[in-house]
Design brief:
The chain is α+β, with helices and mostly antiparallel strands. Helix content is about 40%, strand content about 15%. It has four helices and three strands; from the N terminus they run H-E-E-E-H-H-H.
Length: about 110
């Protein structure tokens, strides 16, 4: 028996990398279907849960009121070396190049 059958996760997510506490790299999941499509979540089982309307409205209100301060904080966060590493790891590579060693051209 597969764990996905027990938890009833299905195939509605894709593994990706994200930032954790103190700038560490953490395994995350990007939802590929359902109400939370496109969202990056900590647990794969979260993708199939319904969206809370109250939390959604509260988050939108907070983003509107703190947009300026959040943009300044985001600028400093993105400049960290971890952010560049995560961006590089999350880029999709063509299937024919995965795992193959390529020769360098001079």
């Amino acid at each position: 028996m597969i764990v996905a059958e027990v938890i009833d996760i299905g195939e509605n997510f894709r593994a990706t990398w994200g930032r954790g506490p103190k700038g560490t790299m953490v395994r995350r999941y990007r939802c590929t279907s359902g109400a939370k499509r496109g969202r990056v979540v900590a647990k794969a089982s979260t993708c199939s849960t319904p969206v809370s309307g109250k939390k959604s409205i509260s988050a939108k209100k907070t983003r509107r009121t703190r947009a300026r301060s959040q943009s300044i904080r985001r600028y400093h966060t993105v400049r960290r070396p971890t952010a560049n590493k995560i961006t590089r790891l999350n880029k999709l590579r063509p299937k024919y190049r995965r795992g193959l060693k390529t020769k360098r051209r001079r």
